[in-house]
Write a structure and sequence with these properties.
This protein is mostly helical. 60% of the residues lie in helices and 0% in strands. The chain is globular, with a radius of gyration of 13 Å.
């Protein structure tokens, strides 16, 4: 998870993408309460969070990016 307001998170992602350009995806999962609630609900975020939420969109984008790589 990435917290957009944290400078360290941004710097770390930038450095990792520069060091490993072919290994990291361009998708980030936001630091959000919906993501943390997946453990409580024991379900994917899209099953209980609004479809338009940043968390649901991020996991959709992650799934799409992974599918293209495989």
């Amino acid at each position: 998870m990435v917290q957009g307001t944290k400078k360290l998170h941004g710097e770390t992602i930038e450095a990792m993408r520069a060091a490993y350009p072919k290994r990291l995806l361009d998708v980030t999962v936001p630091f959000a309460s919906e993501i943390e609630k997946m453990g409580v609900h024991r379900a994917p975020v899209a099953s209980f969070a609004p479809a338009g939420s940043a968390a649901a969109k991020a996991y959709g984008a992650l799934c799409e990016a992974l599918s293209k790589r495989v």
